[in-house]
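Revision sheet: structure tokens.
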Amino acid sequence: MNATLAQRLDWTALDDAARARALQRPVQAVAAQTRASVGALIEDVRGRGDAALREISLRFDGVAPASFEVGAEEFAAAEAAVSPQLKAAMQEAAARIERFHRAGMVQAYAVETAPGVICERMVRAIARVGLYVPAGSAPLPSTALMLGVPAQLAGCREVVLCTPPRRDGSADPAVLVAARMTGVHRVFKLGGAQAIAAMALGTQSVPRCAKLFGPGNSFVTEAKQQVAQAGAAAIDMPAGPSEVLVIADEGADAAFVAADLLSQAEHGPDSQVLLISDSAALLGRVERELETQLARLPRADIARQALAQSRLVRVDALEQAFEISNAYAPEHLILALREPRAWLDRVQAAGSVFLGDHTPEALGDYCSGTNHVLPTNGAAHASSGVSVASFQNFVSVQAATAAGIAAIGPCAVTLAEAEGLEAHANAVRLRLAAGSAPEAA
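Predicted:
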């Protein structure tokens, strides 16, 4: 086996420290350096606004557009440049994404929790949101669809999108078409951590957004986390670099499994792919398929770098494979098993699950209907992928009549007194007393 491909491990032969190292993401090894450089960049944008954005864009993207915002002429040129076939595919994908997300939309509701006491929950769209669509080594118009469709369904009043400029200073035409297709209001040619800083803080050109969405490399993800920690903007979740974990049995198709691993490995050198199987023979077949398929990939060099930090793991039983997966909490989990649905109850933490031999992760990336903006780096333990609810706030409302406070007020008084909060108790007592007082003659 080529030394640059994924490391082969026998889980039962590893001690706890070796197992922890085996499940370490590549980004965790460089986190301190990334954190410092991103922090400095954010502060530069905070202090100098557009001037900092121009210098940073020139340094990292090789171009500093005269205007960051995409104008009408560039949108028109993009429409002309994108083929009818690609437009039709994007429209087809957008329709399925809308169908899936519309079905899961949360509704407002009201309930009488006691006689005379009505409690409600209102649904309100976040007024201004910022979407990040990567286009570094590969433009991702699919991400514009994944973010734009639920934002549109939520009813956000202003949707801002940032995407890296190309070397000629223009934005990727397919990304622009997808943005227009989903009702995005403004698009800016900004990439990387500087785009996140601009949308979180606001500059002379870029409006400040209340919440930021989208995947990206380790710098983008770190920037999102830093602006969230500083209270500058809320974020959807840590989303990047990309990762996939495949659990496969002896009957899995090695070519399919290898293709799924490579589809994530080609995203970037800091992507990670894991294969876990109870069949040593299957692992060997996948190794050979990786070599064969790599030879045909245009992005083979990128995929090889990612594979060098990835793992092929043999376990004694599939039950153990699910224990490992739940500890890792992958962004994407593929169950290449003979009865995949029978194992689904064992999945406790994953961004998105793909069942069986005929459900490649690439379907979820593009057009099955689910969202591909998913939690990474173990965030799937407590976070979920993007949905319409991600773009909304939920506001509780309550109203009590005189009879209502008479019914539940004593409960509030007792709890307030137990907590030593006398003003809380008094606010209720006054109303109880007013309600019980005889009317003046």
